[in-house]
Amino acid sequence: MSGNKPGVSRDSVGVFAPATVANVASGFDVLGFALERPGDTVCLKKIRAKRVDVVAVEGDGGQLPRDPEKNTASVAAKRFLEAVGFPFGLEVTVRKQMPMSSGLGSSAASSVAAVYGANILAGSPFSVRQLLPFTMEAEQVACGAAHADNVAPSLLGGFVLIRSYDPLDVVQLPVPAGLAVATVHPHTEIKTEDARRILKKELRLSDAVRQWGNLAALVAALFQGDLGLLSRSLQDVVAEPRRGLLIPGFARVKQAALDGGALGCSISGSGPSVFSICASMEKAREVGSAMQKAFTDTGLDSDVYLSRINESGPVILGEER
Amino acid sequence: MSGNKPGVSRDSVGVFAPATVANVASGFDVLGFALERPGDTVCLKKIRAKRVDVVAVEGDGGQLPRDPEKNTASVAAKRFLEAVGFPFGLEVTVRKQMPMSSGLGSSAASSVAAVYGANILAGSPFSVRQLLPFTMEAEQVACGAAHADNVAPSLLGGFVLIRSYDPLDVVQLPVPAGLAVATVHPHTEIKTEDARRILKKELRLSDAVRQWGNLAALVAALFQGDLGLLSRSLQDVVAEPRRGLLIPGFARVKQAALDGGALGCSISGSGPSVFSICASMEKAREVGSAMQKAFTDTGLDSDVYLSRINESGPVILGEER
User: Fold this and answer.
1) Where in chain B are the domains?
2) Are B160 and B152 in contact (CB under 8 A)?
3) A30·B213 Cβ contact <8 A
């Protein structure tokens, strides 16, 4: 591969972008964080023709669209190239290295990797933060809504708050030292539309007050590095009581996590993955095993991912820290 | 007055406790902050008899109850004395130095001053934070609900978040340097029950998401000292659109505040007072005048209070910093 040294113009690049946990218990629709694993890899190669082609998708079992107007990686890259005057075209290879429809932001990871790589190939005309709208356009194509609670943490790393969509206002929050996450993906599927439909469109004011009290405390806990407060504020009275019903064994999985010493446990995005935030990697390992066992007891196979909170966001392959 | 030197047992004490702004736009029912002025003064004198008497209430126009089971100052002091075994009784004098039914936490200021003083007279067996439940019992008597969003900031100073009532979980938040507040009390009255009744018991999920996105960002802004973010997050889509209807001229008062350069403007507590947070005392002075003029244009007289955020909470008279 030529042109891979810093400062030298590249003609190809491979980028890893991380999976993400959206909602984070009390932060329904406004909070997410990035994992170190799993994630997706997208490889881009410059071409002269002013178009974006999806030349290969690997590891998706044939499920992802190859149409460049429907694949999130190519959509994000194309919107970016349009914004910078289409100085070149791209051949896109997507290497799925994480489960799809898992609630871990699979489509977001692909679009973030693609647009991050395209910006590098164009000589980085945009800041990383400025790339966010392109990834949101890809989410619109993939999910029917331009959510940012997966793409923003995948792109920026760490905990990210979406204060507002109109105008877009995104706030990066600090990550307390030592935190680790056990994420368990049970082998069952929840359609995003079912996960949306099961939510009530209205909620009681008293429940809303509990939710925003907890979310405000969660933000304070991140700034203060107060793990006790973090633990107490990882509560969701809005989405989890409904969406938990769609995940077989959720109640016992959560109980196993809390009994095992997790600071908090809830549903990742719209599920079915379940995450636990823990005070150490050792604790995350124990908690992950306990959660997996609880899923097994319910008759569900699952995969466990152990990870720190990813504070870096995407990385160029070959330049991993 | 004897026994007023530190370390020497006192037999009397006078305490000033500050007025407070509850709700703070996006923090409905969970957030409040303390002002430097106005506030209330309560003077306590030890007696041998194990009872609490209200010997005088000044400045209330005869409106406040003298019955020690109904006056918030005596209720708070009595609950405290009961908790420490009633080592002495108290004569309580309340000096109202702030408007009642103004939305500025008048009953809270009296109960905080009383219990803070009683603790001093008892040799400070409790930490300041431990006094909070006694003041909440007084709020229960005064308002019919044991709210903490006025008593907690009056007692602890600064911005205070109430994460949860059961169990009680209170979080102190940092105060960005330089902030100043213009609070305007128009001479009109809103019954707390009307202010409660006008709120919808249910709200749309989309509105709730906006509210908690703003509140989470407000907390982040306080930690980061980011006044731009603070300004953008001082928005209330839940209570203000309804309660604003109860305050004559509210829309033009708020517009005058924002046109004058306030970072944000909303209703203090359940009203009718309106507060503006500003980046400097000079700006607060301008904004306070503009708000008062807008009330005048609506035909309402008003009082303006200019204040820093009070980070100290109650002070013993004669020992003010």
Assistant:
1) 12-174+312-316, 180-308
2) yes
3) yes
Q: How far apart are CA B291 and CA B276, in angstroms?
A: 9
As a three-state string, the secondary structure of A94-142 is EECCCCCCCCCCHHHHHHHHHHHHHHHHCCCCCCCHHHHHHHHHHHHHH
CB A90 within 8 A of CB A45: yes
Tokens in use for B286?
Answer: 């301008």
| Mean pLDDT computed over every residue of chain B | 94
Q: Which of B163, B199, B232 sits opposite A232 (nearest CB)?
A: B163
Its CATH class, for the domain covering A12-173, is: alpha beta
d(CA B216, CA A162): 9
Q: Which residues contact B295 (CB under 8 A, 6 or more apart)?
A: B184, B186, B249, B253, B301, B302
CB A108 within 8 A of CB A151: yes
Class of CATH domain B12-174+312-316: alpha beta
Short-list A314, A277, A285, CA closest to A44:
A314
pLDDT digits (tens, 9 = 90+) for B175-215: 999 999 999 999 999 987 888 899 999 999 999 999 999 99
ipTM for the whole complex:
0.95
DSSP letter for B127, please.
Answer: -
* Sign of the Cα pseudo-torsion (B30, B171, A280, A149, in order): positive
CATH of domain A180-308: 3.30.70.890
Output the CA angle B26-B17-B307, nearest 5 degrees: 55
- Given B200, B202, B205, which is nearest A199 (Cβ)? B205
SS3 B45: strand
Distance in angstroms (rounded) separating the CA atoms of residues A265 and A242: 15
Chain A positions touching B208 (Cβ under 8 A) are: 203, 208, 211-212, 238
Dump pLDDT digits (tens) for A244-258. Answer: 999 999 999 999 999
Same-fold call for B12-174+312-316 versus B180-308: no
Predicted local confidence at residue B6, as pLDDT: 53
B220, A29: Cβ pair inside 8 Å?
no
What's the pTM? Answer: 0.95
